[in-house]
Amino acid sequence: MTSTPLLDASGVAKNYGAVAALRNASLSVLPGEVHALMGANGAGKSTLVKILTGAVPASAGRILIRGEARDVRSPAAARRAGLLPVYQEPSLIPDLDVLSNLRLTGTPVEPFRAWVRELGIPDLDIRDTARDIPLAVLRVLDLARALAVEPDVLLLDEMTAALPANLAEKVLEVVRRQGDSGRAVIFISHRFVEISALCDRATVLRDGETVGVVDIVPGVEEKIVELMLGARIVKTHVAARGANQAAATAASRPRLGVRNLRFGTKLNDVSFDLADGEVAGVVALEGQGQDELFAALAGSIRPSAGAIEVDGQPVKFTHPIDAIRAGLAYVPGDRAEALAMQRSVRENIALPFSAALRNWGPINMRRERAKVVSAIERLRIDTRAQGEVQRLSGGNQQKVTIARWIAADARTILCFDPTRGIDVGTKQEIYKLLRELAGNGKSVLFYTSELEEVQRVCDRVIVIFGGRVVDIFPVEEADEPALMRAAYGLPRGAKADIGILADPHSSSPETSDSPGTTP
Amino acid sequence: MSTTAIQSVPLGRRLKRFMADRPLIPLIILLVILVVILQILRPGIVNERWIANTIKFAIPLAILAGCQTMTMLTGGIDLSVGTVATMSAFIMATQVVNQDPAVAFLLAMMPAVLIGLVNGIGVGVFRVHPLIMTLGTSLIGTGCLQVYQRTVIASGAKIPDFLAWLGTGLTYGVPNALLLFVPLAALIVFTLSRTGFGRLLYAVGDNEHATRLSGVRYWQVISALYVISSVLAGITGLLYIGLIKAPSLSLAEPLVLPSVAAAVIGGTSIFGGRGGYTGTIIGALILTVLTTLLTILQMPEGARRILFGLIVLFVTAAYLRIVEER
C-alpha cells in the first residue's frame, strides 16, 4: 500500500511518575481500513487511546495526521483533526435530552438521525432525556453522534460490549462500511470473532510497546496470542496439587455451588463448584462479568436468575451480611472500597465483629485484641503506622482487608485481584497465605488479572468470557498461553489451521464453544 | 501543668507533633487563655460563683453538641435538636400542671422519640440528606408545638421543683446539673470508644461502602443514632427549662448553631469519621466563656455577634491547622 496513513503515531511513551504506562508504542492507520488494537490487560491500550484523542499528553513520541505533525492537546483538538473516539462509558450528559446533547457538541441533527435509523433504532425520540435511555441504546447513540460529523478516524473502544446481538450486528455492519468510504476505524475489542470478521490489520501492544502489526488472515489469532504473551509463551507445567484429591473426594457436596447464574447482560450463564480446601482461580479479560459474579456471591447484587448453593443448601443473599453469615467473605480489588481509611488497623480488622445488632454493646477489648493480634501476626502486617490505615503501604492495606476475614474465621474467601498494585514481596506472602488457608480446609475463589499467578496459587481455573464459563482447567494445563487463549474465547487445543476463523459459527459474536469442562 | 511540659521541649515541629497527637491540649490552652483574658478585663470576675454559673450554662450546650458530635461522626447533622428540646420542655411545663410528673415526663419525651425515629428512617432508609431531613422535622415540630400551645393556653405552665433544682441548684457550690451530665458524658464517651455501636458510627462516617461489605446494615445504625440524638435533646430541654424557668416556643432554638460550632471547635469533622466527645465538651465551655467575655465588653449586640462569628471561624481554622499537621 502506498497511500499515506491517515494516522501515524510512532515512539509514543507516557510516564506516570516513575511508572511507564507506554514505552514505545506505534500505530499506523491507512485510509479505508479497520484496524484492530489489541493487548492483554495493562498492555497500554487505554493510555494510547487517551493520548491519540488528546485526553492526556504524551511524554514522548510523534503523531502525524495525514502526514502532518499535529500536536493534539485536547479532545477538541483531536476532534478538529478528524479523530473521534467512542468510549466504553456512555458520554451523553444524563440530565439533558438527546437534542441538547447534540447541540453541546455541535453535531448536525439530520445525519445523526439517519445514522440512528441505520444502526437499528427506528423509533428514537430525540427529546428523551438521556438518563431514561437504556445503556445499550446510549452506546449506539454515542456511535451515531460520532458518525454524524464524518470523522476521518473513528476510534471504537469495546463498542459491542453490552450490546444485544441484533444491535451489535448492525454496528459491525456500519463499521465495516465505514472502511469502504476511505475513512478508517481503530477497533479495540477482546473478541477474535469480531476482529476476524471486521478488521484488516491488527496492532498488538505488550508492556507498553508495539510488538507487532499483523494482517488479519485465517489462523492469525495464534500469532496474536503469541505476540501478546511475548517471551512468556514457554509452556510451564506444574504438578497437580494434593488439594485436588481433597477436592475430588468432597465433590459430592461442594462448599459453594453456582448454578446458571445470570445478571442483566453481564452474566449470562455461570456454573461451577468450589470445594473445601481448594483455591479456584477465575480468569477473565476486563469486564467479562467477573465483577458481577463476585458481587452476587458477596450479596452486594441480586442475580436475575440462577442459584447459589452453600453446603448444598440454596441461599438468597439480600445484603452482604447474609453472605457473611453463610461464611462467604469478599475482599474487593479496590482497597479503598473495603477500608475505613482514617481508623486504626485494629478497628478495621474488628469491623465485622460489631456489624450485627446484638454486637452493638460493650466490646470485650481483651478478646478482640487477641483475635486482631493473631490475624496481624499471621499476615505479618507492618503495624508501625497502625493509628490510621491510610498511612500504611498499599500491600499492608491489602493485608488488612484479608486479615479482617481471617480474624472473623470466614470459611470461604472471595478474593478479587488481591495483588493488584502491590509489591512483589507482599504478593508472595498473599500466595502463601491463600495456600495455607486451603490447607486448613477453607476454600478460596481467586480472581486474578495476572495470569502467572494462577499456577502459583490455584488448584483449578475457571475461565469466563462474555459472561459465560468457557472452560475449566486443571492447574497442570493452565499455562499462560492456554489461559490467554481461553480468556479470548478460543477453544482449548485449537491448532493454527483450525482456529476460530475457520469455524463455521464465527459469524455470531456470541460464539463461545466451550469444549466441555475438565473430566 | 501540661503547659510547662510543652514549654520545656523546643518549639516548632515537635510542638506541633505533640499537639497533633493530643488534640485536647490546644483546646484546653485556648480555654485557659480566654479565662485569663476575662480576668484581666474584669479583675475578680473569675470566682467560684462564676465557674458554677459557666458550667450550668455550658451543660445544655454540651449535651446538644453531643448530639451533633455523634451525628457528625457518620457524616450527618441533627438540626432538629433545638425544636425537640423546646417541645419536651414546653410539654413538660404545661402537662405537669394537671398530670403526675412521671406521666408528664413520658408525654414530654414522646415527640423526641418520634422525631428521632422519623429522622432516622428518612436518613437511613430513604437517604434524605440529614441537613434537609432534620430541618424539615424541626419545622414540622415547631408547627405542632404552636398548635399544641393553643390547647393548653388556659391551664398555664409551671416549672417542676425537681427540674429547677437540677437546672439551677448548687450543692456545696457544685452545680446539681453535673449529677446528670457527668454520667451522661461518661456514657457517651464510653459508647463512642468501647462499644460496637460507637465503632460503627466512626466506620459508617469514614466509608459507608466498607461497612456494608462488612455486613453492617446502614439503616439500623442511622435509625438508632437519630433516636438517641433526639432523646438526648429531649433530656436537654428538661434541664434547660429548669435553668431558664420561662417556657417559650423558641426556648432552645438559639442553642442549635452553637451546638454545631462546639462540636466543630472540639475537633469533630463534619465530613464524618473523625472526632470525639471530650473535645466537644471543651468546645462548649469555650463558647460559653466566649459569650461571657463578649457580654462584658459592652459593645452593641451587632458588633458582638460579628466578633463571635469571627472568633469561631478563626479558632476552628487555627485548630484544624494545628491538629492536622503531619
UniProtKB/TrEMBL annotation, chain A:
Q: Which SMART domains does the UniProt record give? A: AAA
Q: Name one Pfam family in it.
A: ABC_tran
Protein name listed in UniProt: Sugar ABC transporter ATP-binding protein
Q: Does the keyword Metal-binding apply?
A: no
Q: Supply the InterPro entries for this chain.
A: AAA+_ATPase, ABC_carbohydrate_import_ATPase, ABC_transporter-like_ATP-bd, ABC_transporter-like_CS, P-loop_NTPase
| Occurrences of domain ABC transporter (ranges) | 7-232, 251-491
Q: Which family does it belong to?
A: Belongs to the ABC transporter superfamily.
UniProtKB/TrEMBL annotation, chain B:
Coiled-coil regions listed in the entry: none
The question of whether Cell membrane is a record keyword is answered with yes
* Keyword Flavoprotein carried by entry: no
Q: How does it sit in the membrane?
A: Multi-pass membrane protein
InterPro entries with a match to the protein in the record:
ABC_transp_permease
Q: Which domain of life is it from?
A: Bacteria
Pfam families given for it?
A: BPD_transp_2 (PF02653)
Q: Which UniProt keywords apply?
A: Cell membrane, Membrane, Transmembrane, Transmembrane helix
Compartmental location: Cell membrane
Q: Which residues cross the membrane?
A: 24-44, 50-67, 79-97, 103-126, 131-149, 169-192, 221-243, 280-300, 306-323
Q: What is this protein called?
A: ABC transporter permease
Q: Which organism is it from?
A: Mesorhizobium qingshengii
